[in-house]
Amino acid sequence: MGCRDPVARVYRVAPSNPSALINADRISKSFGIKPLLESVSLGVHEGQRIGVVGLNGGGKTTLLEILGGITEPDGGRVSRAGDVRVSTVTQRGELPAGATVAEVVVGGPEVAVHEWAGDPRIRGILNGIGIDGLLDARVDELSGGQRRRVGLATALVSESDLLILDEPTNHLDVEGVQWLADHLVARRSALIVVTHDRWFLDTVATRTWEVHSGRVDEYDGGYNDWIFARAERTRLADTMEERRRNLARKELAWLRRGPPARTSKPRYRIEAAERLIADVPPPRDTVTLSAFAKRRLGRVVVELEDARVTTPAGDVLLDDLTWRLTPGERIGLVGVNGSGKTTLLRALAGEIDIAPGRRKEGTTVSIGWLRQELDDLDEDQRVLDAVEAVATRIVLGDKEISASQLAERLGFTPARQRTPVGDLSGGERRRLQMTRVLMAEPNVLLLDEPTNDLDIDTLQQLEDLLDGWAGTLVVISHDRYLIERICDSTWALFGDGKLTNLPGGIEQYLQRRREIASAAPRRAAMSNVSGASTASTAPAPAISASEHRDARKAMNRLERQIQQLDTRESRLHDRLLDAATDPEKLMELNAELKDVVEAKEAAEAEWLEVAEKVE
To answer: 470, 445, 438: which is closest to 295 by C-alpha?
Structure first.
């Protein structure tokens, strides 16, 4: 396949059960003395979309690599159906040195551009993943996030029967995560995906595997169904443990007193699953926390007035911005990658100049900032020492907890707390950063992608901590579930020099992004028309007032027609993606798309003629 990414591989293997794509029979895998998988048996069938969850280091990636043929199990065997095509994308993928993005994604320099450039399915994938502007770039020159997106696009372009993806939403913004979810749901291929993005998991998965303690437990449905089933499993386990203790106490009483009088047996009733949450209080008492935040913060928190926010290169991101954070406010900040979210956070923290304009900070404000970088940790310190270097005890909500207790809530067992920082994984370092930020007892939190590399259990603990935290919060995250869970309002950067409040939250943001994308071709066409009109030096012939009104009406009619054709064209591209495996449907939709494009070009040409009369 030429320069295809060796980690996003496609292969064919020996025949097996035709209804199952992959069967794993009693597979085991250990690293050192730690068993990650012990005698695990499972299967993947056609059309299944499986989400894989579990703690970091619990064996999720190892399971994917065994199923994908990258790693061999220590014991057991993996069989695959005949002629099945499997694409695997892991986090440690390497791209061929010297190749361009186009060569990697479509299969090598021997593949002519016209063979794939006219394919709407491939164009849609390149655009959806956000690498359509990088096709001529060499992979050696790309950032880590861009390289990950290239590997993902390579797998999606392939006509695979099974996709195996490890953390595909990393380095994608909210819009990219939405596109990927829609694309995977529309595909006919089966899917195994490791992800910590709860919204993505719930949208995509029809089945969930939980990897823990060397086992893999299977559940029907996505994230919500898994959480629901796990809660019920825990309740039943607690019931069984309580029953065992009651029987033990009863047996002990018999041994001590001899045969006692008969007593009625304890009665256990299996409650409906909804009863698990019937008496659970709201995640946070908003009124109480707001009052507490006001007492700690005072009236002024952080205010930007008439501010101009610029990039390090001098480009203006926001102009004439006035933004006042209030005590207890919880804000989610969204926007495409590179829109300036981190720069705005730096402006709130007072790290960059906002002249003209001014920044005002309350006298009682204490800012805690979680950055994306991991360069603020001493690698020779132990985990607990790194936390206690900030503080030994803090008050969180109405409880006082120690540094060790907070570290344990964020996933560091007492044994792990004695580990040197240099031996921690990326996810563990992220957790340590968050622990240190909270130990400083800030009353204003600025969180830049706090969910990077965190597993779902740690995310739940983090959300629980933030639910009970009184103070002002601004969080940047592509984790839609986190934004909707802990934030009360959503603000967005659309690249228009403004900060926009979105009462409708993430759904409204995605709708606005779709509107911007659909309007872009029309604006470009109108800009070309305007440029052509301006460049013309010949004076336009004078027309009467009635002719001018008629021309204006015709222009308005044509603009509406062009907009409708834009919408039809966009929908046809989506339908072409959905019909990628149906040749007859593709031919029919391609013909319809050709008619729509020709009609739009004719309408734009007519608009140009009418515009010349008006000018």
So the answer is: 470
